[in-house]
Amino acid sequence: MLIGSQKKIPSSEITPRRVWEDRRHFLAYSSAGLLGLASSVFWGASPPGTRGAKIPGLLKGQFSSGESPTPYEDVTRYNNFVEFGADKRDPALRAGSLRTRPWTLRVEGECDKPGDIGIEDILSGFAQEERIYRLRCVEAWAMVIPWVGFPLGDLLKRFGPTAKAKYVAFETLQDSEQMPGQRRASLRWPYVEGLRIDEAMHPITLIATGLYGEELPNQSGAPLRLVVPWKYGFKSIKSIVGIRFTQNQPATTWNRLQPEEYGFYANVNPDVEHPRWSQRYHRMIGEGWLSRKRKTELFNGYADEVGSLYSGMDLKRFY
Ligand code: MTE
What domains sit in the chain, N to C, each tagged with a CATH number? Predict the structure, then answer.
């Protein structure tokens, strides 16, 4: 997300001075040819952070992409997590202030058994599997990430959604002490996202608890983060504390801010252009600025699996 180029809020307004200065420093690197596309060589310049604990007994999940994963350093140092700043380097540098234990997820709304569930119960209650998915961002870059997690639908079923549950709304933690970026009105807090119930129940849709066989680093959305690989990256809301079954389509953060650029569905679709850049091609993070561009596939390559969810819908209208 190019927060800095939004018409409504200039970067100087939304970004604390120190972050802004960091960004100017970063842009100097960019003009030297990197242009914001990370390479492991570049990130290698700073010391690696502490890595999460290994997750034992991982199963091999279905639906994995056959591609080689993007290097760990790139996946965990080039992030969007505005709660920790507007620059893509900020989350790795600043997300240490987030406390992920204890952590409670509240599930409510149109369901028979609303309630709270603690992170330990989630981790012990659902078999963790590894699934390699491509994360395709609306800014026309992508990464391939070996996620660890379990199908969101398995979690949702426990709460007994009723026939009125047509959508699922998600909410990130709101705590400006742990998430200093929330002291600025760069976005409306907390970060919120949503899916239609059939999208949420689809076996591809994952709640990620780790990556690279290890616990999720804070900057990647610890301890619970949504991953919907056929949708643009902004749908994958991080550090989730709330899930609500709703009858009506819920509000989503980026759509609320710039509806003409970010739709509710946000399905990866090369035929639906973003107003400021093409979605036909993308580059892979970690391969360098001069690497060849890849063709973007409808639904990020999952058309066979998820295409039927949208049959009869005008995808140009419901973008
Ligand atoms: N979730 C929260 N809570 N806050 C955010 O700023 N950014 C989104 C999404 N989830 C974001 C978020 C965007 S714009 C993208 S592209 C992905 O997270 C980036 O995920 P990554 O940093 O793991 O690559």
Answer: 18-310 (3.90.420.10)
